[in-house]
Amino acid sequence: MKVGIPKEMINNESRVGMTPAGVFELVKNNHTVYVQSGAGNGSGFLNIDYQQAGAIVLDTIGQVYAMSDMIVKVKEPVKEEYAYVQRGQIVFTYFHFASSEVLAEAMIDRKGVCIAYETVEDEDGSLPLLTPMSEVAGRMAIQQGAKYLEKPEKGRGVLLGGVPGVAPGRVLVLGAGVVGIQAAKMAAGLGAHVTILDINMKRLRYVNDVMPSHVVTEFSNEFNIRKHIKDHDLIVGGILLKGAKAPKIITRDMLKDMRPGTVIVDVAVDQGGCVETTRPTTHENPVYIVDDVVHYCVTNMPGAVPHTSTMALTNVTLPYVVKLANLGWERACQKDASLQKGLNIVKGKVIRKEILEAFKWQALDD
Fold it and tell me: Is the pLDDT assigned to residue 267 strictly greater than 80?
């Protein structure tokens, strides 16, 4: 199979779909790999690294799409890329269709085979291709939140770890999934007081067992959310509904109960956000302020640490890429139930009901 690795076009997205090590494995399996010139520069991988691994470097993104049976990316295609997607071409990447009707319509129109990293699901319900980026984003949420709590960034002027004689900052984590646990771990490591909310008691019991005593758990409901937003300095949104939009559990009217300079880091922004006032931002302009509350809602947070993120992503995607290349998407999905759940839109047909529900569409074959 011919596999293409284009350069990402999203603002300040420096990750790349595959490392040279991944290219080496594909070439070893007798596949041809095309890499767009400069695609790996931001992650620290040069053209020569890919060439030495066996890739063919092409000048333009158009050439990569035109010559490839499968495209392996990091983020969803942007508007300028839509026309490059060919009928029947596999596009393997993060799509998050439920948060973008325009993207979903474009991929239906292009009739490609859209396999989304974020919905590939193991038997135990875990999301193996989403997990590493959730780990990165959860840890970064505290790193960025601590920065924007500083007064020059319009935050409350709070040091999360505190100092002797001064109480530490308070962090509220919404969701005890991968993002939430990584955020809580980082915040606790800094010495902050952490409250983590979830509706899954098994997850809360797990957190209670593995976290230090200054990480406390409570059941998530509107009463408890309204109570805690009043005295917490940093709020991390880590809510995930597989393949669907995140619920808005913090509403606009709740902002007035937060102290001026409170910081919200909505990691769920890729899924539409779990805060009503969330809107997508970029690393170039990462924050905005609503009712004196600082919002950090960057859609590609792991893109700020591309070397780490690209290697972590390739570690988990490569086995699936090799399987798709070796068998083709139909046989690969027949043999691998986890990969089959990654099918979102296939040759113009919406496969996942969450996409239909997000936009109140009827099934296309009704």
Answer: yes
**Contact between residue 23 and residue 33 where contact means Cβ atoms under 8 Å apart:** yes
73-98 confidence digits (pLDDT tens)? 999 999 999 999 999 999 999 999 98
- Check: CB of residue 11 under 8 Å from CB of residue 284: yes
Q: Which residue numbers are catalytic?
A: 96, 270
Phi first, then psi, for residue 255 (nearest 5°) are -60, -35
Mention every residue, 6+ apart, whose C-beta is less than 8 A from residue 326: 1, 29, 332
Annotated binding site for NAD(+): 134, 198, 203, 220, 239-240, 267-270, 279, 298-301
Structural domains present in the chain: 2-119+306-359 (3.40.50.720), 131-299 (3.40.50.720)
363: confidence class by pLDDT, cuts 50, 70, 90: low
Question: Which pair of tokens denotes residue 244?
Answer: 């669907």
Asked whether the beta carbons of 325 and 29 are under 8 A apart, the reply is yes
Summarize the annotated binding site as residue ranges. Answer: 15, 75, 134, 198, 203, 220, 239-240, 267-270, 279, 298-301
Strands 234-237 and 287-290: unpaired
- The binding site for substrate consists of 15, 75
Determine whether 111 is exposed, middle or buried from the number of CB atoms within 10 Å of its CB (0-12, 13-18, 19+): middle
Q: How far apart are CA 253 and CA 66, in angstroms?
A: 49
How many Å apart are CA 324 and CA 331, to the nearest integer? Answer: 8
Within 10 Å of residue 366's Cβ, how many Cβ atoms?
6
Q: What is the pTM of this model?
A: 0.88
Q: Calculate mean pLDDT across residues 151-179.
A: 97
**Closest Cα partner for 90 from 74, 68, 120?**
68
What is the dihedral sign for C-alpha 108, 111, 116, 122? positive
Alpha-helical regions (H) of the chain: 20-28, 47-53, 61-66, 101-110, 131-148, 178-190, 201-210, 222-228, 306-327, 329-335, 337-340, 353-359
The per-residue pLDDT for 366 is: 44
| Residues 252/229, Cβ–Cβ less than 8 Å | no
Distance CA 92, CA 177 (A): 24
Task: Give the model's confidence band at 153: pLDDT under 50 very low, under 70 low, under 90 confident, else very high.
Answer: very high
